[in-house]
Amino acid sequence: QLQLVESGGGSVQSGGSQTLSCATSELKSEHVAIGWFRQAPGKEREGLSCINFNTGTTNYSDSVKGRFATSRDDANYLFYLQMNSLKPEDTGVYYCAGLYVGPTTWCPLNSGSFNYWGQGTQVTVSA
């Protein structure tokens, strides 16, 4: 089992920045990928970024590439999503999710690959 808890959501103006955190329970293996997802009202959950804890490999969707960055705090099992140049269309509930990937560099963006999910945190970007 892997437990995840997001924090850092809130309201921000367009063009601003915000950092989300994902606290995880102790990992049973370093071979885990942590993804960040967003679900806007009336839309499907969208994969934004992924980081492979063991290899540091990252993956980003085209919609956030160059604006968002994911990182990790190895010692404290914390994961971050730094969001810059925020737009109103970035509004939604943000989730972090976990997946044990074995000794690979795999870091997917599709929500169906992830087994463990946080409860989500709301981010609202106003124009």
Characterise the protein shown here.
The N and C termini lie far apart (40 Å). The mean pLDDT is 95. The protein has strands spanning 4-7, 10-13, 18-24, 32-39, 46-52, 58-60, 68-73, 78-83, 92-100, 116-117, 121-126. With 127 residues, it is mainly beta. Helices cover 0% and strands 49% of the residues.
- So what's the overall shape? globular
Secondary structure: helix percent: under 10%
- Over the alpha carbons, how many angstroms does the gyration radius reach? 14 Å
The SSE order reads EEEEEEEEEEE
Helix and strand content put the structural class at mainly beta
A few lines on this structure:
The protein is mostly beta strands and 127 residues long. It has no helices and eleven strands.
Based on the model shown, name its key terms.
127 residues; mainly beta; seven-stranded mixed β-sheet; four-stranded antiparallel β-sheet; 11 strands
Element layout with pairings:
Elements: E1 4-7, E2 10-13, E3 18-24, E4 32-39, E5 46-52, E6 58-60, E7 68-73, E8 78-83, E9 92-100, E10 116-117, E11 121-126
